[in-house]
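Checklist before submission:
- one chain only
- standard amino acids only
- sequence pasted in full

Submission:
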Amino acid sequence: MDQATEVNLIKSMVAVHFRIYDVRVSYEAVELLVTPDQARLEQDFEALRRDMYTKSYIPVLDYAGGEYSITVVRKPPAAKNRNWLNLIFLAATMVT
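Returned file contents:
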């Protein structure tokens, strides 16, 4: 997926729950400045978090300088299972 398509996907997912008034794009993240409904802030963010989890994104809500922002990053790939390496070290320890 190209960057413009990915940014538009993220914007559309956030726009379902928050009113967006500015977007900042960097290599690592998309930052969206939003105006939340204060009464529903926690519920809306939790719903956004669940929606984004299914698409492998992680949103982070922040409040600084009188503005709310949601920074969205890609979920890192899962670490490879290296239990076999631990077993080798255990066996080597027991042999010595």
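Reviewer check: Strands lie at 19-25, 30-35, 57-64, 67-74.
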